[in-house]
Design brief:
By secondary structure, the protein is an alpha+beta fold. It folds into five domains: 1-132, Phosphorylase Kinase, domain 1; 135-200 and 226-353, Orthogonal Bundle (Transferase(Phosphotransferase), domain 1); 395-504, no CATH class; 515-654, Tetratricopeptide repeat domain (Serine Threonine Protein Phosphatase 5, Tetratricopeptide repeat, Alpha Horseshoe), CATH 1.25.40.10; 845-912, no CATH class. Helices cover 55% and strands 6% of the residues. The strands form four sheets. The chain has a six-stranded antiparallel β-sheet. A two-stranded antiparallel ribbon has the order 7-10. Strands 8-9 form a two-stranded antiparallel ribbon. Helix 24 (658-676) packs antiparallel against helix 25 (681-694), helix 31 (806-821) runs antiparallel to helix 32 and helix 34 runs antiparallel to helix 35 (887-899).
């Protein structure tokens, strides 16, 4: 499969169409679920263009490869979904604005816009240059690059920015993801959706969809922050108007990140404390420190000192320092001047490029027949901002910032701005949809009062969820801070509140007000339980969830029953798998009764995990998997699809069906990355599991996958976050498969240090680290050290876990293996007998217990004890490895049986 997806053309992560990727090698699984119904087929016409294939899709629209018969060339068509154009007219304005911005610039390093027009029922499209490569970000992640290679491409991208500035444009969101790299090696800057004219002075309201969109019109709210926080200039964080010098800062921050793999900014907590304050004359500005960083007069340095490696030429270092100045006045006067200083290679300084303007392309199709003008200043649909302020306002933000600062969490500084951004974005999207839902009925007359009511109920539930989370975050302790970004990213999606067909599907709310009040109270408590669980307080979430399930006895409304039972059943999965199964089955029934398709599909997907992974009933899990797949086909949901693929992959992993597991998990990881991006937790959870699935067959590939995951987590959470420790544990397992015991040991010690400092020296995470450390030492022939480590793990587990926990059995197995290595079979028997007793009480099958049974067989034999039982245990181990298709260990057992013949019981005989 190609290492990169088709270029995004400014729409971010796209869902790939396998047919558009061309020939591939190896087994490449295709998605089992249907593509969006509004996708156009090959041969369809869009204006004069003929559709060849769908390159990908995002939440707002689709990108097609198409053929232009008049000019005999291949183009990329960017097309808004029909479902988006009416419900979110600002999206059309943004698309037109982007086309106008790019059409102003004719330059080799700026993507070309050929045409803009409408298709069908006034559906906006833009025809652009077809670029068959990935993004600059893809190029950087594919392999390690030299400074010279990075500078070469960034200088080309900088020339594109300079051309935009010469045309009077400011990009405002320059970053590696917004730079395309074609197969011809040429760099193109794209995604001018946030661009503005340098002559703009004030933000304007979003234009009416009937009126032509002027490029100078602002599409963001007054004072809104636009851009990507990791690369944004201080003036953007402070809501000041950005100019071409802000692009310089974005460019230098991106270049720093490309070279060192980290953001050049520190002290972001202070910057974000200022986010909602208007700058005053007392605000301090930066000066250039000849020692190598921009300094702030009244506080810590915001631009980091340069790392020692890789070493940079002095001219490049000085250029970055100046380009990253906090005061725009201290930066270069123009982008051209910056590039001249950056070009430390004399050959680059010769300017092999020319800013030869060929003339701006004229955008055709000016007469866009939008349905009717909308008075955006109407008082009829105001009030969304007031409602949002009840759950997210400067007061609450200040409380959250103080709680993060006082939590003692080492991740607070890094996570705070990301959590704030996630909540800001969610709030803005909520307000936009709330206003649009009202206007669609009250102003545009596009929907009935019934539909408005359904959309508002949906949005109210989303606001409940946001409020429940912000109440937890304003009192955050270190545990809440650890989970804060995941919790913010897992707020329920808003797109469902614009899906009229889905909203009409569930049975309507009861007529009587008393029942409605009880339903609203249950919804409020459900939101509280979800927020508690997402922020890491599972025990409190269970308490609230149990109270909510009891409250269901007073309400017969099936849709709310489905949501509550699905949530509570999932919470119970690690506490009582049987009870979890019962609750989830009831959720499926309630979802069917209430015609809540997505919730039913989610409950079925969760049953795959609870039945298959938690209980080892693989055939039952396979049946639930088929039902869940059918449900997702009926009601497509990327979130449920990703969960299903991940849960099923885990079930296959438990059965050691690694090839099938890798297929499912690879598909899940790709869908997650397309839907949420490469830095999102949901993407990296599946990516880590995918690495686990391929580590036995393709450890080198697993090494690349888990390293990608670690890089992503370190960028968003910092290197000492416990999640990074867990990923390093997986990395150690991959090294173990490569027989690289030194690196495996080093990674496990790093993981143990991270977990000891973050979650405690007697935590389950530390116990898991010690388990794998014992396995590594044992594999390296260091049985004595392995025994000490395994005993430490057992001591921790006996303190924090129930007496018959499955995890205790694994620590005991490691102790038994270490004693065998030390030639102390009697001691090994004691530990392994106890391990098997725990396995049997938990009803683990032969596949799960094959290793323990074979170890006990050898211990009994070597100790001169019950050799008949030793033979029976070895036979059970053989059956287990055979069931798991574990050829490597199966061969070892068979060889041992040949060397140690005993009278074996008949097949299907005694099993312990």
């Amino acid at each position: 499969m190609p290492s990169r997806l088709p270029a995004s053309y400014g729409w971010g992560a796209l869902t790939p169409d396998p047919s558009a990727l061309g020939p591939v090698t190896g087994q490449v699984p295709t998605r089992e679920f249907p593509q969006a119904q509004d996708a156009l087929q090959r041969g369809s016409s869009i204006g004069r263009y003929l559709v060849l294939s769908k390159l990908g899709e995002g939440g707002m629209g689709l990108v097609y490869a198409a053929y232009d018969p008049e000019l005999n060339r291949k183009v990329a068509l960017k097309l808004l979904r029909p479902s988006v154009r009416g419900a979110a007219s600002p999206a059309q304005a943004r698309l037109l604005r982007e086309a106008q911005a790019m059409a102003r610039v004719s330059h080799a390093n700026v993507i070309s816009v050929f045409d803009v027009g409408t298709h069908g029922d006034h559906q906006v499209f833009v025809a652009m240059e077809f670029v068959d490569g990935g993004t600059l970000n893809d190029w950087l992640l594919k392999q390690k690059r030299t400074v010279r290679e990075i500078l070469k491409l960034f200088i080309e991208a900088g020339r594109g920015l300079a051309a935009a500035h010469a045309a009077g444009l400011v990009h405002r969101d320059f970053k590696p993801e917004n730079v395309l790299l074609g197969s011809d090696g040429r760099v193109r800057v794209t995604d001018f959706g946030l661009a503005r004219l340098t002559t703009d002075e004030h933000e304007a309201e979003a234009p009416s969809p009937q009126a032509p969109v002027a490029l100078g019109a602002r599409l963001t709210q007054a004072g809104a922050i636009v851009g990507t926080p990791l690369f944004m200039s201080p003036e953007q964080h402070r809501r000041q108007t950005p100019d071409a010098r802000s692009d310089q800062f974005n460019f230098c921050a991106s270049l720093y990140w490309a070279i060192y793999g980290t953001s050049p900014l520190e002290g972001l907590e202070r910057m974000y404390l200022r986010r909602h304050q208007q700058p005053t004359d007392d605000d301090h500005t930066s000066t250039v420190d000849t020692a190598g960083g921009a300094v702030d007069d009244d506080g810590p340095t915001l631009v980091k000192e340069f790392p020692k490696e890789p070493r940079l030429p002095a001219s490049v270092r000085r250029t970055l320092v100046r380009g990253l100045s906090l005061d725009p006045e201290q930066r270069f006067s123009t982008m051209e001047e910056l590039l001249k200083q950056l070009s430390y290679d004399p050959r680059v300084a010769q300017r092999r490029w020319a800013i030869g303007a060929v003339g701006a392309l004229v955008i055709s199709g000016a007469a866009f027949g939008y349905q009717r003008a909308i008075n955006r200043h109407s008082q009829v649909c105001r009030g969304a901002e007031t409602r949002l302020e009840k759950v997210w306002n400067p007061d609450l933000q200040g409380q959250m910032e103080r709680s993060f600062a006082g939590s003692g969490s080492p991740y607070a500084t890094l996570l705070l701005p990301q959590v704030q951004d996630a909540l800001d974005d969610y709030g803005k999207s909520w307000m936009a949809m709330h206003t649009d839902a009202c206007e669609a009925t009250r102003l545009r007359g596009e929907q009935t009062d019934e539909v408005l009511s359904l959309r508002m109920i949906c949005l109210d539930r989303r606001l409940l969820a946001m409020g429940a989370l912000t109440r937890i975050l304003v009192g955050a302790d270190d545990k809440v801070v650890e989970k804060s970004l995941d919790a913010a990213n897992q707020l329920p999606g808003l797109t469902g509140c614009a899906d009229v067909a889905a909203l009409k599907s569930p049975i309507p709310l009861p007529e009587d007000q008393a029942t409605r009040t009880r339903v609203d109270e249950i919804a409020r408590k459900l939101a509280e339980s979800k927020a508690l669980a997402d922020s890491g307080n599972v025990s409190k979430a269970l308490q609230v969830g149990e109270a909510v399930t009891q409250a269901l006895e007073t309400v017969s409304y099936a849709p709310i029953r489905a949501e509550v039972l699905s949530h509570f059943g999932w919470l119970l999965r690690s506490v009582d798998a049987k009870q979890a199964e019962k609750q989830l089955e009831e959720a499926v029934v309630a979802g069917e009764e209430g015609r809540l398709d997505t919730e039913r599909a989610r409950a079925q997907a969760r049953l795959v995990y609870v039945v298959g992974y938690a209980q080892g009933r693989y055939e039952d899990a396979a049946r639930w998997k088929r039902l869940a797949e059918a449900a997702v086909r009926r009601a497509p949901s990327s979130e449920v699809e990703i969960d299903l693929l991940n849960y099923w992959g885990n079930v296959l992993l438990k059965q050691q069906r690694y090839v099938e597991a890798a297929t499912a998990l690879e598909r899940g990881a790709r869908v997650a990355e397309q839907e949420f991006g490469e830095l999102d937790t949901r993407t990296n959870v599946v990516l880590s599991n995918w690495a686990s699935a391929v580590r036995f067959r393709k450890p080198e590939e697993a090494l690349k996958l888990i390293t990608r995951s670690i890089v992503a987590y370190e960028k968003t959470r910092g290197p000492t976050h416990p999640t990074v420790g867990r990923q390093r544990r997986v990395l150690a397992q991959v090294y173990l498969e490569l027989n690289d015991y030194r690196h495996a040991y080093d990674e496990l010690k790093k993981a143990e240090e991270i977990h000891s400092a973050s979650v405690g020296p007697e935590s389950q995470d530390v116990a898991y680290d010690l388990d794998w450390l014992a396995i590594t030492l044992q594999a390296d022939g260091l049985s004595g050290e392995a025994l000490q480590v395994a005993e430490r793990s057992l001591q921790i587990r006996e303190k924090v876990m129930p007496p018959n926990s499955s995890d205790l059995a694994y620590s005991l197995e490691n102790i038994g293996q270490a004693y065998l290595g030390l030639r102390k079979p009697q001691e090994a028997v004691t530990a392994l007998e106890r391990a098997l007793q725990i396995h049997d009480k938990n009803r683990h099958d032969l596949g799960d217990t094959a290793e323990a049974r074979f170890a006990l067989a050898r211990a009994l034999w070597e100790g001169g004890r019950d050799r008949k039982r030793a033979g029976a245990l070895a036979e059970q181990a053989r059956q287990g490895y055979e069931h798991n298709k574990d050829e490597k260990h199966l061969a070892v057992v068979k060889k041992w049986q040949q060397d140690h013949p005993v009278a074996l019981p008949p097949k299907g005989g005694s099993r312990r």
